[in-house]
Design brief:
The chain is an alpha+beta fold and 214 residues long. It is built from three helices and 16 strands. It is 18% helix and 40% strand. Bound molecules: zinc ion.
C-alpha cells in the first residue's frame, strides 16, 4: 500500500520515491505526497517523474495516478514527485476555515444537517438543510471562527484507526473531528475568514468560505 506522506507531513512539496506498479497509464507509488480527492478536498496537481498527473484517484487504500499516453515509467523506477504547493496550501487553509465554520454551525440550536461540501483552491462551500436565510448567523460565525484563528491554536492531525486509515483533526479545547484531509499545523495559518451566502433551493442554504492571507 502507498505510504501517505501527505498525512505525516502535509508541508512536503517534493519527494524522491519509486514507482510501485504500472498498469497501462495508471501507476502507483511506494510513497506519495500527492493527495487524491477525498472528504471534499480537491486533488493536488503536479508531476511524477516529470510527467503531469492527469488524475489522482483512490483504489481501496491505494492511490492511482493517471500518466499521459506514451509515458515510460516502469515499476522500480526512481521518480521525483512534485506538487503545486501554492494550490495545496490554499486548499489546506480553506479546508480548515470550512471545518471551523461547520463545527460552529453544528453548535447552533435546531436540526442542522450538512448535505454537501467542497474545497477548491479559491473557495470552500458547505451546504445545509436550513429553513431560513443562513446569513443571519454570519456575524457570529465569522467572529467566533476568526477568534479561533487569531489565537493561533495548535491543530493535531492523526490516525483514529491506522488499519482502516481513518484520520481526525483536533484543536484541543475546541473540537475533535473525523477527517482525512491534509491539515495546517496552526489555526493562524487560515488568515482572514469571509463568508457569503447562496440559496441553492427551497430549504437549502450554501455557505461559501473565503480565507484571505494575512
Ligand atoms: Zn475535513
Amino acid at each position: 500500500m502507498t505510504k501517505k506522506l501527505f498525512w505525516e507531513d502535509p508541508y512536503l512539496t517534493t519527494i524522491e520515491t519509486a514507482v510501485e506498479s504500472v498498469f497501462d497509464n495508471s501507476i502507483t507509488l511506494r510513497e506519495t505526497i500527492f493527495y487524491a480527492f477525498s472528504g471534499g478536498q480537491e486533488s493536488d496537481t503536479g508531476t511524477i517523474g516529470g510527467y503531469p498527473v492527469l488524475e489522482a484517484r483512490h483504489s481501496g487504500l491505494d492511490i492511482q495516478y493517471l500518466s499521459p499516453e506514451g509515458h515510460e515509467l516502469k515499476p522500480g523506477d526512481s521518480v521525483c514527485v512534485k506538487i503545486d504547493w501554492d494550490r495545496r496550501y490554499r486548499l489546506m487553509r480553506l479546508h480548515f476555515a470550512a471545518e471551523l465554520i461547520l463545527e460552529l454551525v453544528y453548535r447552533e440550536p435546531g436540526q442542522v444537517k450538512k448535505i454537501g461540501a467542497h474545497i477548491a483552491p479559491d473557495k470552500a462551500r458547505i451546504d445545509f438543510h436550513w429553513p431560513q436565510n443562513i446569513s443571519s448567523l454570519f456575524p457570529k460565525l465569522t467572529s467566533q471562527a476568526q477568534a479561533l484563528v487569531d489565537q493561533d491554536m495548535v491543530i493535531i492531525s492523526a490516525y483514529a484507526d491506522e488499519s482502516s486509515q481513518r484520520r481526525y483533526w483536533e484543536v484541543p479545547g475546541f473540537a475533535r473531528v473525523s477527517c482525512g484531509g491534509t491539515h495546517l499545523k496552526r489555526t493562524g495559518e487560515v488568515g482572514n475568514i469571509m463568508l457569503k451566502r447562496k440559496n441553492i433551493g427551497k430549504g437549502k442554504e450554501r455557505i461559501e468560505v473565503y480565507a484571505a492571507a494575512k
